Amino acid sequence: MNHLELIEKAKQARELAYAPYSGFRVGAALLTKDGEVFLGANVENSSYPLCMCAERNAIYNAMMHGKKKEDFVMLALSADTVEPCSPCGACRQVIHELLPSDTKIYMSNLNGDIKETTPNELLPFAFSEKDLKK
Ligand code: THU
Q1: Minimal-distance CA residue to ligand 1 atom 1
Q2: Residues 27, 32, 35, CA angle at the centre, nearest 5°?
């Protein structure tokens, strides 16, 4: 599967968003080495801080199907934004932790604009396992 097809999957995932409070629907799709695709969309809550982003739902969905960091090769996300939709700070931290550093990440919008990036570009100087060591 190429990145354009994965972005289409992210757009399909977006249709599953539960976003009655913000009205801002986001979809994500995560591709594994063996060609499997795991979807995620944002799921909101009337208790606003409990909202969960599309990217994290996609990653956790894959992990709950037994997939591991080394299995992941590409992540796409999409929303109805002017610029290609950018992952929030919390998602950047989770992406840095759970996706390999060479994972290709495609941010996109509904107009066909696409930006390619990586976990390290999204979160330089990330807090990680190494920082827990004394
Ligand atoms: N959202 C995502 O799903 N991913 C992001 O990276 C940015 C924000 C969701 C959370 C919330 O449901 C809505 O978009 C508005 O912030």
Answers
A1: 53
A2: 100
Q: Do the bridges between strand 72-79 and strand 26-32 make them parallel or antiparallel, or are there none, so unpaired?
A: antiparallel
pLDDT in tens, 42-55: 999 999 999 999 99
Report d(CA 29, CA 38) in Å as an integer. Answer: 6
Q: For 75-106, how does the pLDDT look when each residue is reduced to its tens digit (9 = 90+)?
A: 999 999 999 999 999 999 999 999 999 999 99
Which residues lie with the beta carbon below 6 Å from any ligand 1 atom?
19, 22, 24, 26, 42, 44, 51, 53-55, 87-88, 91
Nearest CA-CA partner of 114 in 68, 62, 76, 72:
76
CA distance 72 to 39: 13
